[in-house]
Amino acid sequence: MKRRNFLKTAGALSVIPATGVALPLKSYASLSAAASGKKEIYEWRIYTLTSDGKLLDSFFEEALIPAYKRKNIKTGAFRLHRVNEGEKDKRHVVFIYPDIETYYKVKKSIWEDREFRQKAQAFYDTSAPAPAYTEFESYLCEAFDKIPVHRKPDPSRTLLEIRIYHSPNEEANQRKVKMFNSEEIDLFDKVAINSVLYGEILSGPNMPALLYLTWYKDEKTRGEAWEQFRNHPDWKRMSALPEYANTATRNQSIFLSPMPWSQL
Fold first, then answer.
1. pTM of the full structure
2. Residue 147 — φ and ψ, nearest 5°?
C-alpha cells in the first residue's frame, strides 16, 4: 500500500495515544443494534459556517439534538480543533442510527415533532434571509463488521480525529475495508488509537470512500500513538501485502474538539 499522505485540514498537530481503549457505549441505539445483529448507520454532516457559529450552535443544542434524543438517536457534535488563518470555520455532526430503517423513519418523522418545530422556527426564520452556513456535506455510512456498534470516548478526551480515505475504485475501497476489519483496527487497539466508529460510505460527495473517528486525551498522546503505529512491525508487514496495494490513495484528516453538549 502506498505511504499515507494525510491532508491536515484543521491545522498541523504534533502526534499520540490515549489513556486506553474505549469500551462500547451502552445506549439505546447500541443495544438495539447489538441485539438485532445489525450494523449501525451513521449520518455525518459537515457544515461550512458564514459567521461565528453561535446561531447554528444554539439550534443544534436547543432544538435539533434534543429532538433526535427524544427518538433515542445519539448525536456527536464537534468544532474544528484549530481554525487556520483564511480558513472557513465548520461544524461536524454525526447521527447514530441502530439500522437503516430507523434512519428513514427519523428523517421523515422529525418534521412531525411539534416541539422541534416550535423550538427550531426562530432559527429557520432568522437564517433564511441570512444563512448561518453556506451548505453542508453529508455522508451516509454503514458500520464495519469489526465494530458494528460505536464505542464511547473517555470523558478525558479533548481531541477527536475524523479520517476520510478515498480509493481509486470500488474494488480497492472494498479491500481497504477488509484491511481494517481483518487487521488494522486490532493494531489501532494495541497502540491506543482509540476507535469511536468506522463507516463504509454508502452515499457522499466523493466516492468511493470510507471514514472513521478516533479520540485522544490530547495532541501529545495522539502523536505518540501514531508514532507507535507507523513503526509497529504489524503495520510494516500488512502495508507491504499485495492485497492491500493502492487501496487508499487520497486521504483527509480533520482534527476536532467536542462541543459541550456532544454525546460523543
1. 0.85
2. -130, 80
Quickly list H helices, the chain.
Answer: 28-36, 54-59, 65-70, 100-109, 114-127, 170-179, 185-191, 219-231, 233-239
Q: Are 223 and 237 in contact (CB under 8 A)?
A: no
- SS3 (DSSP) at 53: coil
Q: What is the dihedral of CA 6, 8, 13, 17, to 10 degrees?
A: -50
pLDDT at 30 over 70: no
Half-sphere exposure of 153 (CA within 13 A, CB side): 25
Is residue 199 within 8 Å of 147, Cβ to Cβ? no
Residue 36 pLDDT: 57
Residue type, 226: W
Task: Give the pLDDT mean for 251-263.
Answer: 95
Phi, psi of 102 (to 5 degrees): -65, -40
